Backbone:
């Protein structure tokens, strides 16, 4: 599959997945709210499997599995024997950790949240049903990353839609049976807990089953193989050690952040509000960085395996420029539409005003994280997982210090936004350090013109953002129709995005920015 087609497949699948995910979030907010003790209890419990999954597998999959599968695919059997061994080993490891984590649910709630007795009890009940998602997340990611490495990009991007459909149906049924906006701790029964958290887990199971069906259709045998000798576990283990430490450092930071934010739970934006702001942030990140960057990573891995260093450097430069072109305008559009976008995930205009600062704080790091995506995966393609650990440790240490400062100095009503801003600042520093280390490790990549291109994009996004902000003001601003309810919030955010994007594209065309032509050609091929 060519790069343009791969990007289009991932982009369309990711768009459909993210849009259905947004609808899922809207239904969940209608059911339990985004600012309240019950909504925060569920947010912490439902995030536990994701957090643990990040520690045990995310870094290992991205940093270790993809390059190894690319190399194994050159074998006579297409790497099928290696894949069977890898799948067997991954199933056993993730399964064992899931059992232990489920039994330890009360301790995990203590670890991640500073809740009172009643809120802790409800969160623990949610966790017993949510933590088993860990096994299915692990299997989904393992199968999906292997398919990506084999240049089969579509199923991994499209399968989450099934998860969202199942969840939407379940959350809607919850509202029919038990009512809406159940954000307080009063009145929660065992049946309500099972319906809400069981729905979330059923959705994850469904998306994994779909991926298994696609796996069989592409002709890769799905079998168990316990003969692990000779598959290179020693080499993968050394790489996995550093990626494990990298993700572990990130999760330690997450624990401190959660402990800092959860005391604000109740009347203020806290855990649930942070997750919804992050969800909007991830729409842009996934649509641009993951959709465009994933095929670039596969190409970078192939260049590294073939020792085509000149081609690899050109691919790195091109990928950063194309990602920057798209991510800059996404940042500008979401920033000026932050209030109506936040209204989509809140049950009142006041809650939207509380969530919007979190979204703005996260957006500060959107462009740096897009650059970091390519820089980090260049290290991985060369088999270097130690250096990413070093610059991630710098980021983690900076976030920890800043979060402690926030906890000591910031009022509860501003704490979640301050924590988000501290994370964005640290991520920006991390990207700078990573780029410096990339040059020192592998020599010059000739990135100076690329940094200048990013600056041009930012300059052109400023008047585009001004046009979008003008639309918001003409609509009445914070007192206008865009904050009346969720529907008008979505319509207003879309209108602002269209105007902002249109002005940006016009400026790129007027000034004949060469990256615009490359991006348009990529779209035309599809």
Residues:
């Amino acid at each position: 599959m060519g790069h343009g087609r791969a990007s289009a497949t991932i982009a369309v699948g990711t768009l459909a997945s993210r849009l259905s995910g947004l609808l899922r979030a809207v239904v969940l907010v209608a059911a339990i709210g985004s600012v309240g003790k019950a909504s925060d209890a569920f947010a912490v419990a439902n995030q536990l499997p994701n957090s643990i999954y990040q520690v045990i597998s995310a870094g290992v999959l991205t940093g270790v599995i993809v390059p190894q599968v690319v190399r194994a695919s050159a074998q006579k059997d297409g790497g099928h024997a290696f894949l069977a061994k890898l799948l067997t080993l991954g199933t056993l490891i993730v399964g064992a950790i899931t059992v232990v984590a489920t039994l330890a649910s009360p301790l995990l709630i203590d670890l991640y949240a500073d809740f009172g007795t009643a809120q802790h009890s409800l969160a623990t009940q949610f966790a017993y049903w949510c933590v088993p998602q860990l096994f299915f997340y692990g299997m989904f990611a393992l199968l999906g990353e292997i398919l990506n490495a084999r240049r089969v990009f579509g199923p991994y991007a499209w399968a989450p839609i099934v998860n969202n459909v199942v969840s939407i149906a379940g959350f809607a049924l919850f509202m029919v049976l038990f009512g809406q906006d159940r954000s307080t701790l009063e009145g929660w029964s065992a049946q309500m807990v099972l319906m809400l958290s069981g729905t979330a887990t059923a959705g994850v199971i469904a998306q994994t089953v779909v991926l298994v069906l696609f796996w069989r259709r592409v002709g890769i045998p799905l079998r168990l193989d316990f003969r692990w000798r000779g598959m290179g576990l020693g080499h993968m283990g050394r790489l996995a050690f550093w990626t494990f430490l990298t993700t572990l450092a990130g999760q330690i930071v997450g624990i401190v952040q959660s402990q800092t934010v959860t005391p604000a739970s109740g009347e203020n934006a806290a855990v649930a509000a942070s997750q919804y702001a992050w969800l909007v942030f991830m729409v842009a990140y996934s649509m641009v960085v993951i959709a465009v960057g994933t095929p670039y990573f596969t190409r970078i891995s192939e260049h590294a395996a073939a020792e085509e260093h000149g081609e690899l450097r050109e691919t790195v430069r091109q990928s950063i420029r194309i990602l920057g072109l798209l991510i800059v305008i996404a940042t500008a559009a979401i920033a000026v539409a932050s209030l109506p976008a936040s209204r989509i995930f809140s049950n009142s205009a006041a809650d939207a005003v509380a969530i919007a600062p979190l979204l703005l704080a996260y957006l500060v790091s959107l462009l740096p994280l897009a650059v970091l995506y390519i820089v980090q995966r260049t290290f991985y393609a060369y088999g270097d997982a130690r250096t990413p650990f070093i610059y991630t440790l710098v980021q983690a240490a900076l976030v920890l210090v800043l979060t402690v400062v926030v906890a000591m100095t910031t009022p509860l009503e501003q704490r979640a936004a301050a924590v988000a801003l501290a994370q964005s600042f640290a991520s920006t520093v991390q990207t700078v350090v990573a780029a410096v280390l990339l040059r020192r490790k592998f020599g010059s990549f000739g990135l100076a013109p690329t940094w200048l291109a990013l600056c041009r994009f930012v300059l052109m996004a400023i008047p585009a953002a001004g046009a979008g902000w003008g639309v918001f003001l003409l609509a009445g601003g914070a007192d206008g129709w865009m904050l009346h309810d969720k529907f008008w919030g979505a319509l207003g955010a879309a209108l602002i995005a269209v105007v902002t994007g249109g002005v940006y594209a016009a400026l790129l065309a007027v000034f004949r920015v060469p990256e615009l032509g490359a991006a348009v050609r990529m779209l035309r091929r599809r």
Q: What stands out?
A: The longest helix spans residues 37-72. The chain has 20 helices and no strands.
